[in-house]
Design brief:
The structure is a single chain. This protein has two domains: 74 residues, HIV Type 1 Reverse Transcriptase, Chain A, domain 1 (Roll); 108 residues, Reverse transcriptase/Diguanylate cyclase domain (Alpha-Beta Plaits, 2-Layer Sandwich), CATH 3.30.70.270. The chain is built from six helices and twelve strands. It has a four-stranded antiparallel beta sheet, with helices on one face. Strands 1-4-3 form a three-stranded antiparallel beta sheet. The longest helix is centred in the C-terminal third of the chain and has 17 residues. The two termini are 34 Å apart.
Length: 213
């Protein structure tokens, strides 16, 4: 689980990112006698993140029968479409928009500055979070009768032979996602753009990204 931190938050007695998360209902105080390890991690861009180490929990979590697409196959499937125009749509803060059932909260407990907390929303770092997120978005798109697309977790690619066709498909998908209470930022919508602009497949993150001319 990752929460973006400003450096002064970590060392301040007055501003605490956990307090902010409590106010926004991402976290709640908790006391169940168990706890995962929390770490303050600095990223390469200088930002800080509060990270909860859920590796121990992941080791004892049973497998899900649900499955996601093979991310290594997605570029080949996309290539087979042989379309002229593409666009990408990504939802934002998707895990944190998915509420946890009350009976599931104890397993996600962690301690920060001597106080125990747990999550109200689906945390990052738990091994089933991507699968659950993917499944909920997939269900919303299916129920909304979305046009043909490729999806991996919270990233969606659409295509067509003209920019107008892709634009109309994108509008419909965005409308479906917003109706299902998923958030979308303008910066997470890329395209339409020509096929030659679709260059980068980022396997490490497990998502398809686009760089547009």
């Amino acid at each position: 689980m990752h929460y973006l931190l400003k450096r002064e938050w970590i060392h301040s007695d007055h501003i605490d990112v956990v307090s902010i998360c409590i106010v926004t209902w991402l976290l709640r105080c908790w006391d169940n006698g168990t706890s995962s390890l929390e770490l303050e991690v600095q990223k390469s861009n200088g930002q800080w993140r509060l990270t909860v180490d859920y590796r121990g929990l992941n080791e004892v979590t049973l497998l899900l029968s649900a499955a996601m697409p093979d991310m290594l196959e997605l570029p080949y499937e996309l290539e087979s479409k042989a379309a002229e125009q593409y666009a990408t749509i990504g939802t934002v803060n998707t895990f944190f928009s998915i509420p946890l059932a009350a009976e599931c909260r104890p397993q996600f407990a962690f301690t920060w500055r001597g106080v125990q907390y747990t999550c109200n929303q689906l945390p990052q770092g738990w091994k089933h979070s991507p699968t659950i997120c993917h499944g909920l978005i997939q269900t919303a798109l299916e129920q909304g009768e979305a046009p043909e697309h490729l999806q991996y977790i919270d990233d969606i690619i659409i295509w067509g032979n003209t920019a107008e066709e892709v634009f109309e498909k994108g509008k419909k998908i965005i409308k479906i996602l917003l109706k299902a209470s998923f958030a979308i930022k303008r910066s997470k919508v890329k395209g339409p753009a020509r096929r030659s602009s679709l260059k980068e497949y980022n396997g490490k993150m497990g998502i398809l990204r686009s760089q547009w001319m």
